[in-house]
Amino acid sequence: MIKKKCGVILSLVLVLGLGVFTAGCGNTQAAREANNPDSLTIAVVTKDMYLDTAVKKFEELHPGVSVEVKEYTSSTSEKGEGVRAADPGDIEKYVTTMNTQLMSGQGSDIILLNDLPYQTYADKNLLVDLGGLMQSDQSFDSGKYYQNIFKALEYKDKLYGLPVNIGIDMIAADRTLLDNSQVQIDDSNWDWNDFVKTAEKVINDNQNGGTQGMYALAGMDEKRLIATLVKENYDNLVDPEKKTANFTGQEFLDLLNLSKYLIDHKLVNTDTAQTNIMDMASRGKLVFNFTSLRGFWDLQVAKAIFSEGVQLLKPPGNVFFSTDSMYGISSKSAHQELAWEFLKFLVSDDMMTQGGMPINKSVLPQIAQNFTQAIQKNGGRMRIKDDGIPCQSITLQPPTQEDVDYMENLLSQANVYIGTDQKIISIVQEETAAFLTGQKTAEATAQLIQDRVSTYLNE
């Protein structure tokens, strides 16, 4: 959950300009757009400033070309009111609409693939292989990009989604608490048992045997806890290419038991309504905090939250990454060439220096410089807020060269994409509720999930 928080926080600050577009599109309009070689349509759940800016600049660079972004949201907030986080209902509506449009050969030229079963679309030849376009386009320099990220996103040796930004999952730890307990963590070789043992030792050392008021994790209810653990291990539990699931294996049973142990032993503060993570961290009451690094903002926030010192750890396993902005091109699009030009522009030097965690290798120093200038301009004082958590002020510091090197190293190691299917996460959350209250065994719960997910994958 916390890994999502910093992404939300980043969005709250960086994404401000939003408008409302009409979601629907009739056949007459679709036909008119298809006949106009200089028009382009993009389907998203909600727009963001990055996309807005790209559309504006692209149209300026290509006079006569028009790009329309179609939102599928019920929100009515106006530009300047702040960010509209994607509502679960909007996501469901988006998935349903895209399914219908793509299967009927309609829809936008470019499609935001997040939350969509894009592997299924690829199997039905509804998406263009972007890897093939990269290879055939002499103006596209693949060497400028992190190939490990493209490789991790491949499906059946083809690339159907181009991420504009990524987030790398990390666990932030209170360095002072670890030092006080003389605990050293080697995140190249640790597992979830090490995570629990470390948390228990730190809590016991600092609470004189008691645990009240100090937690391994906080602001994470039962649903978010199991969803987070499943996402961190998703690549071992679901194989979308083979359409198989592995929820009855020992790995998932261990995750179930880990979740219950953390909750039963009150190692997780599940009161999301009253928990102030930043306050707890500043008082030395929080050992770990899941976070997703989506740029220097998140890195500096993680440092500010654990004001006495933070150690960023790789979660057990590989270096995982996710993205909330991955685009693909419909194979039914009559404007595939123009769509590819737009996608190339999205990941160009010009656009990627705006911020975030870029897939373009050359722009990170410039992003750091821009971020530094922004902090120097306003003093770095920020007020941040997350779902149900009171607003709190923090002071950010400019990134150092060490920070730039750290981020570049992380980007080069990101080799596993967490492309979770929200439907599968929902199934897991539904079926684990009875287990966490002791009404079902781990084995029975795992079998129910295995059966439902297997059916879903093969629909």
TrEMBL record:
Highest rank taxon of the organism:
Bacteria
Cited Pfam families: SBP_bac_1
Q: SUPFAM superfamilies, from UniProt?
A: Periplasmic binding protein-like II (SSF53850)
Sorted UniProt keywords: Cell membrane, Lipoprotein, Membrane, Palmitate, Signal
| Name this protein carries in UniProt | Extracellular solute-binding protein
Provenance organism: Pelotomaculum isophthalicicum JI
Q: Would you indicate the residue range of the signal peptide?
A: 1-25
- PANTHER family attached here? ARABINOSE-BINDING PROTEIN-RELATED (PTHR43649), POLYGALACTURONAN_RHAMNOGALACTURONAN-BINDING PROTEIN YTCQ (PTHR43649:SF33)
Q: Which Gene3D superfamilies match?
A: Periplasmic binding protein-like II
Give the InterPro entries listed for this entry: Bact_solute-bd_prot1, SBP
